[in-house]
Structure formats: structure tokens, C-alpha cells
Amino acid sequence: MIRYIEGKLLKKEEDRIVVLANGVGYEILLPAIVRQTFNPKRAGEDGEIVRLYIYYHQTERQPKPLLIGFNFEPEKEFFEKFITVEDIGPPTAVKALMMPIPKIAKAIEERDSKTLESLKGVGKRTADKMIATLQGKVGKFALMREDQIPVDVEVVDFKKQVEEVLVKDLGHKLNEAQRLVKEAILRNPNISSPEELFEEVYRGQKEMMPS
User: Fold this and answer.
1) What does the DSSP 8-state code read for residue 122?
2) Angle 115-39-196 (CA atoms, 0-180°, nearest 5)?
3) Which residues are paired to 51 by β-bridges?
């Protein structure tokens, strides 16, 4: 079983990276909280050395191994507890972990279902299950040091990218593009990719069109 990988960053994609270690390229899925640290502004050029703690997932229903990467071992440990909640498998958990783990842990301990419902793919029923399953078990994760956690929300990382496309490729003025993006994020703060942001901008425009 693979628990840790150290190697060169070979490729970055929307929700995963490929790490070259000992001549083998490992495809590793990254939760949003980890992807932030691989933003080009922070991570530098491809070829940098990557060190990740790995959660290895393989079952009869999913025979293809799934590698999920974390910067810190406590992140991986929290993930392992998180997926004990009914209806939250590893792929769902990867999408849901889009805010700092201490904030999620604090919400669970304080029975703050509203915060939990803001996680991607989590509704009221699942938020209630999280609290029922994990309350009293994740307090230590609420104490993780903030300097170990990227503080920028990932949406900020791709907001300018979407604005640039709206201006350069789609003909919008800069102030109009900035307004459209800002309104889209306000409508849906759970956006976690440029594609989702474009869709939300389009939905907002569509709603304003006369029927």
C-alpha cells in the first residue's frame, strides 16, 4: 500500500497532479484545500519536488486504485474519519474538503450544520450525519495551526483567469467581467473550478434575459 510519495511534479490538472517517483508517474487526486498549494503562483514550475501523504483507496466496486494526496498527515487522518460518515466515500470527500479542516472540524463539534451544508455535495441530511457520526471525535483537528493551511480560498485563484477570458476572448469590458464574476461567486460560494464559475456566470446572464 502506498502511504507517502516524494517525486517531481510532472503534470497539473484541474483536480489532480502526476508525480514522477522512481520512474513511475503516479496520478494523485487532490482535495481543494491541497490543490491551493499547487497554484502556479505558489508552486513554481513543473518539475518541483512534491511530498504528499497518500490515502490509498481500492475496493471490489472500484478495482482501479485511487490515490488521494495531502500535505500534512493530520489532513489525511481527518479525511479517514470523514469518510466513515454514511454516504461520504473518498471521491465525495475529496470534492467536499474545500474549506480549512479546522473550520470543518469546529463546525462538527459545535453542531453547525449550516457551515457543513456549504461544503460541495453536502446537504442537510448529510450534514446531520456528519455531526451524529463525528461529534466528539474531531476536536483535535480544530486545533490545527493556521500557518499550516493555505488561507486563500481557491475561487480567488481562478477568478482572474475567468475575468481574462471574458475580456480577451469573449469581448466583455473589464469592469463588466469583474461584476459578472463577483455576482456569480456571491450566488454560489461553493464554486471550485473555472468551469463551474463560467457556468454560474452564464446562469446569471440567462436569468436576466427577457423570456
Assistant:
1) -
2) 55
3) 6
